[in-house]
């Protein structure tokens, strides 16, 4: 049997290459694809996927896979969807013309999810807010595990108005323990202060009807003291603080998902953008809860007005931006301005706090944090709208350093600054509570 050139090369130990021609395409061009189907390495003694030393029937028991099957498997393992440039993107993915390359476009869901571990122009957008979410989750767990310290309880007791002791209060020790189950949790060093605490809730000359029983008197004391005693032991309610942390985590996680999955399809992107807008509005609205609730703890009317007002503003903002027209790149500055205006509405309760409660040290201490938070957010909005620095050198910041990534980092910095201010408010209320008749 004759050997052609191809067979002769194989017999001589050189690499064998088989070429096939592809029919001309519509443009009249002719493509030639050269595929390596077999490689014979004479020096190493490896032939057809097995060693020369295995010639003694080894390959008969374990025949090598055919080159075509191995090649197909290799293609499936190594298959990747190519990143494309801005000018070939579908309209729904065109948002920043200064980022020129490394876009994902219309990828299948599996490849879209796995792209979280690959490099493209959304990688840092995904991970900045995903790491921010994990950070706030850890901070939430850590903060909720903390209880009011003994120092805070002692400070709170010392801030209470001292009133003369009453003999009847000292005689009711047994009844107090029975009537106030929470007293079992009071540290022993606080027991001596209980008469002073109770003196706030019992008038100097209590008027008790002739037919009143001791139990009736104790029930009256329980109703008056119960809320104050619970706050002393458990601290100020953590609900407003948890609302803010939950809103922040929702915003960060929804943003991360939006950047990860938006390349899949226009329909999915449509809903992901709405989720992203809801997350931003939620984060802004919930950031009002800790300062407003703790500052106006003793003034329910103002507390309800401010919290209801910002919640309604958030809902209206979301409804407006659910209109499809406002999702286009044309309205990008308008979206940023609207959310910034929503955040700036916090100037009203902040001004109220400063004007009426400037005598409180906590007012000035938290004010610096709130100013820092506002500067972080404001700088983030400016960078987001102006698209700096990629506007200066298009293409240079495609992978790292472009405006949206900087915006994400500044949002996390602002939220963390607000978290620190929230801790101050919460710890302050743990120590002082709400004294009836006081301004704050």
TrEMBL record:
<keyword id="KW-0479">Metal-binding</keyword>
<feature type="region of interest" description="Disordered">
    <location>
        <begin position="1"/>
        <end position="45"/>
    </location>
</feature>
<dbReference type="GO" id="GO:0009744">
    <property type="term" value="P:response to sucrose"/>
</dbReference>
<feature type="transmembrane region" description="Helical">
    <location>
        <begin position="367"/>
        <end position="386"/>
    </location>
</feature>
<feature type="binding site">
    <location>
        <position position="404"/>
    </location>
    <ligand>
        <name>Zn(2+)</name>
    </ligand>
</feature>
<feature type="transmembrane region" description="Helical">
    <location>
        <begin position="275"/>
        <end position="296"/>
    </location>
</feature>
<feature type="transmembrane region" description="Helical">
    <location>
        <begin position="302"/>
        <end position="324"/>
    </location>
</feature>
<keyword id="KW-0862">Zinc</keyword>
<dbReference type="GO" id="GO:0046872">
    <property type="term" value="F:metal ion binding"/>
</dbReference>
<feature type="transmembrane region" description="Helical">
    <location>
        <begin position="336"/>
        <end position="355"/>
    </location>
</feature>
<dbReference type="Pfam" id="PF03006">
    <property type="entry name" value="HlyIII"/>
</dbReference>
<keyword id="KW-0472">Membrane</keyword>
<protein>
    <submittedName>
        <fullName>Uncharacterized protein</fullName>
    </submittedName>
</protein>
<dbReference type="GO" id="GO:0038023">
    <property type="term" value="F:signaling receptor activity"/>
</dbReference>
<feature type="transmembrane region" description="Helical">
    <location>
        <begin position="124"/>
        <end position="144"/>
    </location>
</feature>
<keyword id="KW-0812">Transmembrane</keyword>
<dbReference type="GO" id="GO:0016020">
    <property type="term" value="C:membrane"/>
</dbReference>
<dbReference type="InterPro" id="IPR004254">
    <property type="entry name" value="AdipoR/HlyIII-related"/>
</dbReference>
<feature type="binding site">
    <location>
        <position position="259"/>
    </location>
    <ligand>
        <name>Zn(2+)</name>
    </ligand>
</feature>
<keyword id="KW-1133">Transmembrane helix</keyword>
<dbReference type="GO" id="GO:0009725">
    <property type="term" value="P:response to hormone"/>
</dbReference>
<feature type="transmembrane region" description="Helical">
    <location>
        <begin position="241"/>
        <end position="263"/>
    </location>
</feature>
<comment type="similarity">
    <text>Belongs to the ADIPOR family.</text>
</comment>
<feature type="binding site">
    <location>
        <position position="408"/>
    </location>
    <ligand>
        <name>Zn(2+)</name>
    </ligand>
</feature>
